[in-house]
Amino acid sequence: MPAAPPTARLAALAVALALASTTAGRQPDPPKLGPKLPDGTFTLPPAAGGGVVLSPDDYAKLQAQIDQLKKQLAARKPGPPSGCAVRGKVEKRGDTLVAALSLKVTFRTTAPNSAVALGGKKGFLVSAKLDDGPAPVLETAEDGLVALVEAAGDHTVTLELECPVAGRANKAEVGFELGLPRAAITTLALDAPPGVGRVSLATRLPDAKTADTRRGVDVKQLAAQPGRDGYPVGPVESLDVTWEPPAAAPPTEAALTADWEVVTVIGAGFVETAAKLRPRGPARVWKVAAPADAVVTPERVAPAVGDATPSDAPTILRPTDAKKAVWTVEFPAGTSPADWGLTAVVRTSRPKSDDPTHAGPYAVGPFALLDAARQTGTLRVAAAAHTRLSVRHGPDVRQDVPPGPATDEAVSFFRFASGAAGPAPPPAPLAEVEARPTTGLVEVRPSYRLTLTEGGWRVRAELKVTPVRRDLETLTIDVPADWRAPAVTPPDLVDGVEPGKDGGPRRTLTVRLAAAHKQPIDLVLTATLSVPPGASSAQVSLLRFPGATERDAAVTATVADGLDVRGAAREWDGDQPAGWGQPLAADPKAAKGPPAITGRTDGGLARVDLNWSPDRVELTAELRAEVTAQATQVVVTETLRLRAPEGFGKAVRLRGPAVPKGLKTSPPLTPAGPGEWTLPVAADAKEATLTATYALPTRDAAAPVDLLWPASATRVESIVRVWNGTADRAVGVDAGPWRELPPEPAPGRDVLPVRTLAGSGSDLPLTLSLAAPADLSGATARADRGLVQVWLGADGTATGRARFVLSRWPADGIDVSLPPLVSGTVVKVAVDGNEAPAGVGPYGLRVPLPEAKAGRTAVLDLQYQFAAGGWRPLAVPELAGAAVEVVRVQVTAPDAVPLLLGGHPEQRWALRGFTFAPYAPAADELDDWLLKGIEPKWNGVALHAAAVRADGPVRAAAVPLVALITACSAVVLVLGLLAVRLPGSAAGPVVTVVAGAVAVAAALAPQPAGAAAAAALPGLAVLVLVLAARALTRRAARRRVTHLPGFARGPVADDATPRPTPSVKPRPVPTGSTGDLGAAASG
């Protein structure tokens, strides 16, 4: 059956304690107050002469439960209700005004025993009811009343309150103030006093940052109307209603209120009560009800102002009638009563402990401020430790949790509140207290854990020892004689163990503690119990604790996987185990671990009878694992298929690596210890599949690989493929019990595994060996395209950016070898546009890459700076162990012409405008080629950029454009003019030599030769112009010679006379002559 709610149990236990306290002899003179319970609880008193007798053990149980329930109630945080409707009217009671209010609070609870705030602060509770039924269980909090509702659902609590109407300081207004529960829907309906036409509403929201709001409201808006709950005020926590009284009526004086703080201390030979009074109000004469034998003294609670003298102190007049003791306090003129308080101390002697009246009762008070509209206060009763306090009080007093930290004293704390007090003193004291010493006891809650091992049953008894109203220094334990090597820990609590006399079925151990304890402590006793080989049953006797109360004993028995265990637990029947046992049930936690049974009882356990037998289910497993060796770890991806023809029956236990990194499984596993997990499966399921991925660390050159194995499988068949995911290591396998299979390709991988292994059985060892190979000629990575872009600077440095499109790479990343860089250069590394955390690798930088999949590519991006110019080699990164198909290098010099040696130039001559020059691919064209594979169209900038296909080192130099054009043009112009001036016999060889040199230069350095040829075009144009001008000049000279004025030149007549041979060799015809001697002579 369901457990009773905490509030109901608290009420029942409080009733029992109150009834128990009435059994002892008491004096018949005090008034019959009877047991007082919190508001909303009730009890049926016993018949006349009846009573309830509790043993110390029962009383201790009840007291412990009450303390626990009090803590639970104190820890509850009440929630606000959904609605609060306030209806009220202002009534006149004698000479004072009182606001009679009715609060209708509606709310919904989703769980039993919920706490709901009701408000009501600064109001006096008259009555309360829950759902038109009995009164609810109410608690007093700082913000007002709190209702404890047992059942979940929709509820309504109706509170009847009264608030005194008092004046406002420095204002001609009167009103009242009431705390509200911050309900979202809060309304007010008020019947104002006659003659009042408008009231002022001041509200305060829970948010401390929001200022208080004040608004004036016509009384007609506050009047109750059909179909309307009232005037909405919002989710406020405080409501202050004020109005100006009618002019004809005299102003209402502020009500006199009192706040008390009463402390009663019960010592060994005295009882002292100190009551501090703090009145509030304009009254200049206080009438205080206090015992006639009290010592009453005034106390200034506010610092003196101005020239205050001792004569300003109030005058205290002692009571004239001891039976109706009323003290009078009068204040002289010019003295403010608000600056003073009053302290009354009553001290009486207490009879000796052997006197029947030593326990009391002792009266507290009465204490009251007469003619006060309201009185509130606290009552604290304290006594020495291990004292049971019984406090009887009236309905205005309510017990509460003592504020402040817990102490060793016995303390009872109360709050009280009462309405208007008349002119007569109270007829009864505030409370009556009885104090009786309690008999101390020790409670032990044992929890036994029995584990079957090869040597027998291992017993672990966890003892929670609680001293009740006494100091715990030693604990006596009766240990069964067949328990071997009992030991008690922990050593910081246990000072020593003293064994008793041996003999009989039990021996006594006295545990001596290192210090006396008043709070609960935890001890652990361990021992072993031998079991004969082949035994399948055992009777395990358990501990006993002489002089202590044993309760809430529990036992759990665990056996190994593959065994079935059953048993029964027997309680004590006197000094012997009971004749019948309580069967132990399967432990719910055993589904995640080894088989276990458990049981619990309210008292102690004497013996456990256990039986166990093999219970093995036929279970086969197929294991496939992909083992990838990386630089610093081994990644395992495992698929485990389990089959049980008769059903699994329970969860499957797995064994594996002790600390796998990043273990991810589907379905999720439940940890059962270091290197152990359980796979939850349905009891009637016959097949299950588990996929797991995890990583294992490598240790130098060896990497042990622990797989996930089913612990209870009858047959396991395994296939393991080993892959090399590194670029700088060779992976080997120590076959051991494994047999090698032909290489088996895997979908999504374009390489074969290093080894493919097969094995039969469980827990087969597998060890990988990692060694650096002699060379890295075998490529483990592939780059389809590479682009290196270099920007030459004027300071002798260059900025480089190298990108590679990878289509295959090792699982743990790739090593990048960089040439010498500029000191302090930070290499920026990115993969697919995202910054990558590069580390130090054996060949330079180790760049982590994403998981390689079929058809997937990755773009590796490196940015760096290096020294360039002067025909130094360009810094082109190298990918270790990678085959790179094509690498293009683009060099740009913004203010110069880059000259490249090495590689295959990529340039095309084209006429664009008036420029005929070699053009390299543009940067955006090279980006398209790198990322998309689109060949460039050579639309770059002439001379300032150059590109080559790199198949080796590429050297670069930069020459200023103006200097290059000037030099090349001058060389062409000079060589052309010299060739023209040479004789015909020398011109041919010279031109041939020059042409051959140009051809050799173009073959050896095609890119610089092309740049020089483009730079020489201006000189060639000048040379052509010079030669053209020369030819025109010579033609003009010949024309002038041929067409001299006054001469006519015709054809020469044929003359057959032979000409004589001249004796003188004719001289050479000078340059510019026609060569006609006759013409020369005639001229």
UniProtKB/TrEMBL annotation:
Keyword Ribonucleoprotein listed: no
Pro residues bias: start-end ranges? 1059-1069
Give me the ranges of the annotated region Disordered.
571-603, 1047-1083
Which parts pass through the membrane? 957-979, 986-1005, 1011-1032
- UniProt lists compositionally biased (Low complexity) regions at 583-596
Asked whether the UniProt record includes Membrane among its keywords, one would answer: yes
Look up the signal peptide feature and give its range: 1-26
What protein am I looking at? Uncharacterized protein
Origin organism is Urbifossiella limnaea
